[in-house]
Write a structure and sequence with these properties.
The complex is a heterodimer of chains A (262) and B (266). With 262 residues, chain A is mainly α. Chain A has ten helices and no strands. Chain B has two domains: 51 residues, no CATH class; 200 residues, MetI-like (MetI-like fold), CATH 1.10.3720. The radius of gyration of chain B is 25 Å and the shape is extended. The chains are: A mainly alpha (262), B mainly alpha (266).
């Protein structure tokens, strides 16, 4: 027994953990080799980086009309997609909640959410661009799909965590299902839902600036075009505006959550 | 007696009701304004079922045989990018998280500086980071890895900082009293308390990064997205379908793996 008597260590070595760390390290070296990541490439990049940074500044706001048009479209897409996503995920989450619904209802609803969540909004946007053409509509639909995936999952979990005592009490009065939902379920989850929806609106705002890269409307298209034309000072102006918008959105959601104590 | 019975009971104070009303009003106004002004061409929508049918027709049969030569390699690259990016992000995020935690670093200006770094990293989307790194380092996996890493600093750093702030003072004070150097305090005081949160955050972020690494290729930053981009540009929808199925399989597998690991570790 190594751990008894004077040889007892306060921190005995955990060989499993050490083994796991070594395996992780070996994997990292292997992955670096696979991706051909070498310090030489990185060093060459740093040189380019200095030139690139010099070309980014000062930001060029001369084409502000193009910038404002793209940003407004991104904002509209985010708002419409969040509203649509919320409308769709409310019934879906209710269907998926295992404490209120039978198994045959909850599994299909869960499957829909998993599929919606699996693809990055930009990939979904590619498919919608093919289906409904270039423009804001494809972006709205892509962001709606993403919203259903995440909101649905969060809302389902929230509904599954409610106390069933109130549900039972309302049911005992002989109330129909709609009353059970509106008087026993909604009051317990409402403030959390507000939190989820504001979080998702934030996420949609971020992604609405990106889906334009594949032609689905918003500022992303302008940004990608500016990058391809090496128009780096305009790129800088666009990115700064996006950051400002996202930060403003974050401040706003914090305020909304305060109102609803979510 | 009758006074008490006739009294109208309300759940919220007047201030709360006004606040809620303002929020509802603004939300409805924003939705209406957006719906009225967003440029949607309805003709495209009538055409949509036909176009979707056409797309599915071109996607079927899925080019399964394309997998070994054209998809497997890039798909593995994407996974490597996601993992390396996550590891790099954690390496960079840990010191920033220590600086951001008020109980570890008692200098307010350092806390704010660290939080500014975290917010800035988070506000720039992974794809924008990827565009930047492609411009600097040229197309390829290096740009993608760095893009994932820089964006993830914000998320991991913020959550790690919050976890650090919640850590119990007891063991740390005991170590300080024994005159332990700061490295020992970090390893034996903070790390054991931080470990469950740390692994939860890392696994969660890795799961997100697996999804994100699939799209990096669309802007030239390596991985399976580049194969997807090529297939789409050449209108090879059957190959694109193969790639989408492969991405779906990997994403679902990653989600299952992280849930299982989380159960084991935490």
């Amino acid at each position: 027994m190594a751990r008894t008597g004077s040889s007892r260590s306060a921190f005995p070595p955990d060989w499993w953990a050490r083994g796991a760390w070594i395996v992780l390290l070996a994997y990292l070296l292997y992955a670096c080799a696979q991706l051909e990541l070498t310090p030489a490439r990185f060093a060459a990049g740093l040189e380019h980086g200095a030139k690139f940074l010099a070309r980014l500044f000062p930001p060029d706001f001369k084409r502000w009309e193009l910038l404002v048009k793209g940003m407004v479209e991104s904002l509209q897409m985010a708002i419409v997609a969040s509203a649509l996503g919320t409308l769709l995920s409310l019934p879906l989450a209710l269907l998926a909640a295992r404490n209120l619904m039978p198994v045959w209802a909850s599994w299909p609803a869960r499957a829909v959410m998993v599929v919606c969540r699996s693809f990055h909004p930009v990939i979904v946007a590619i498919l919608f661009v093919k289906a409904v053409g270039f423009g804001a509509l494809a972006g709205i639909l892509a962001l709606t799909v993403a919203s259903v995936g995440f909101l649905g999952k969060l809302m389902t979990e929230a509904i599954e965590e409610i106390s069933l005592k109130q549900v039972e009490a309302v049911r005992a009065t002989g109330a129909p299902f709609a009353s059970v939902v509106s008087y026993a379920v909604v009051p317990q989850v409402f403030s959390r839902f507000v939190g989820f929806v504001s979080y998702e609106t934030d996420a949609n705002l971020r992604n609405s600036t990106m889906v334009g890269i594949v032609g689905a409307g918003g500022i992303g298209g302008t940004l990608f075009a500016a990058f391809q034309r090496f128009d780096y000072d305009f790129v800088c102006a666009i990115v700064l505006t996006i950051i400002a918008l996202i930060m403003a959105g974050e401040v706003l959601t914090v305020q909304v959550k305060k109102v609803f104590k979510a | 007696m009758s006074d008490a019975l006739e009294r109208e009971w309300r759940r919220f104070t007047p201030a709360e009701r006004i606040g809620r009303f303002v929020v509802y009003f603004c939300v409805v106004a924003a939705i209406v304004a957006s719906l009225r002004s967003v440029e949607v061409i309805p003709e495209f929508l009538y055409d949509a079922p036909e176009q979707i049918g056409d797309m599915l027709g071109r996607m079927w049969p899925v080019a399964w045989r394309h997998y070994p030569e054209g998809v497997h390699g890039p798909l593995m690259d994407s996974l490597h990018i996601a993992t390396l990016g996550t590891v790099l992000a954690v390496l960079m995020a840990v010191p920033v998280a220590f600086l951001a935690a008020r109980n570890v670093t008692p200098y307010a200006w350092l806390n704010y500086a660290a939080k500014l770094i975290l917010v800035a990293a988070r506000s720039v989307n992974t794809l924008i980071w990827a565009l930047f790194f492609v411009a600097v380092l040229g197309p390829g996996a290096l740009a993608g890895t760095l893009a994932i890493a820089f964006h993830s600093i914000g998320f991991t750093g913020k959550l790690l900082g919050e976890a650090l702030e919640e850590s119990n003072r007891g063991t740390i004070e005991a170590l300080e009293a024994s005159g332990a150097p700061w490295l020992s305090i970090a390893l034996k005081g903070y790390w054991p308390q931080l470990r469950p949160a740390f692994w939860a955050i890392v696994l969660f972020r890795w799961d997100i990064n697996v999804r994100e690494s699939a799209v990096l290729g669309l802007v030239g930053a390596g991985g399976v997205g580049m194969a997807l981009d090529t297939a789409l540009n050449l209108f090879q929808w059957d190959r694109a379908a193969m790639i989408l199925v492969a991405i779906l399989a990997v994403v679902v597998a990653a989600e299952v793996a992280t849930t299982q690991l989380r159960k084991r570790i935490i």
